[in-house]
Amino acid sequence: MKRLRLIALCTIYFLFSLGVLTAQQDYVIVSGYVKDAESVDILPNANIRVEGTSWGTTTNREGVYRLRIPLGEHNVIFSYIGYNSKTLHIVPEKEEITRNVYLESVTLDLQEVVIYPHPIDPAEEIIRKAIQHKKEILSKLHSYKFNAYTKTTLRAVRMKDEKPDTIIGGILETHTEGYWKTPDLYQENILARRQTANFSPQVN
Length: 204
Known about the structure:
- By secondary structure, this protein is of the alpha+beta class.
- It has helices at residues 2-24, 122-140; strands at 27-36, 47-50, 56-58, 64-70, 74-79, 86-90, 96-98, 101-103, 143-160, 163-181, 185-195.
- Strands 1, 4, 7 and 8 form a four-stranded mixed sheet that branches. It has a four-stranded antiparallel sheet with strand order 3-2-5-6, with no helix packed on it. A three-stranded antiparallel sheet has the order 9-10-11, with no helix packed on it.
- The protein starts with a helix and ends in a 9-residue tail after the last strand.
């Protein structure tokens, strides 16, 4: 009886070890940090996604990310508001690799602004012209269509080893399309939505 129990335990342990080994071989871990290429400042909440898949993550408050991707060659896209996106072609050679990324800020060419003395607040004149310009545009607009992708990441901060550590509490993603037609016809359709298991589709 003891011999049969020992054989059963060994068999279960072997199958569990084989499953863990197989799972480990299905993906690799890519980690590193995202910083400003000029100032070397960290970029928190930068977006990282694997092109053509639903795999992705964001950097924490220290600009550090950790991303699990399937085996094989992948293009990993790094993006941040106000910066040019950067794509890395990654060919995993081991279970965990490091890729530090530096993003370059977008250069905007702005027109020269000339300030003249005026008895009233110059901001009032700017606002007045903006309102007038908006009315002119809206008078010519009769309909429009849009296609939108929205991603919401919920984070919480906990203390780990007496230091604050950011954890992701959930992720919501939606892909919608819609249109508007004068005077008040508006419609919006949800094409796809994804959320972590702790949220229901109705919440998203």
